[in-house]
């Protein structure tokens, strides 16, 4: 799956014809899931389990995509804005 396809899947999940559970989520309701998935990633790292790390990184990435999609729906920012911001921050912090 390509990055644009993944973004489209998340967009579809949040659309009127998408998943009812995904549609009703807010930044606030998703906070606990972001924290839970982060702790699950910590555990996978501690266990030195690459397969679990891959799985949990995907779950954390989904949380990022969901938060970005909610922000886009409210006219605040998109996942592209998040990526652009990160790129600019990395370039600022690593000018070499």
Question: What this model shows, in words?
Answer:
The chain is mostly helical and 96 residues long. The chain has a single domain, classed as Helix Hairpins. It contains 5 helices and no strands. It has helices at 3-14, 20-24, 27-46, 50-73, 79-93. Helix 1 crosses helix 4 and helix 3 (27-46) packs antiparallel against helix 4 (50-73). The longest helix is centred in the middle third of the chain and has 24 residues, at 50-73. The mean pLDDT is 98.
For the record, the CATH architecture stands as: Orthogonal Bundle
Instruction: State the name of the first-level CATH class.
Output: Mainly Alpha
- End-to-end separation in angstroms reads 33 Å
Number of strands: 0
CATH topology: Helix Hairpins
How would the global form be characterised?
Answer: globular
Please state the average pLDDT score.
98
- When the domains are counted, the total is 1
The profile of the biggest β sheet is: none
Secondary-structure element order, N to C? HHHHH
Uncertain runs: none
Structure annotation, total helices: 5
Let me know the CATH homologous superfamily.
MazG-like
Work out the helicity level: over 70%
Percentage of β-strand residues: under 5%
> Helices and strands: which structural class?
mainly alpha
What is the CA-atom radius of gyration, in angstroms?
Answer: 15 Å
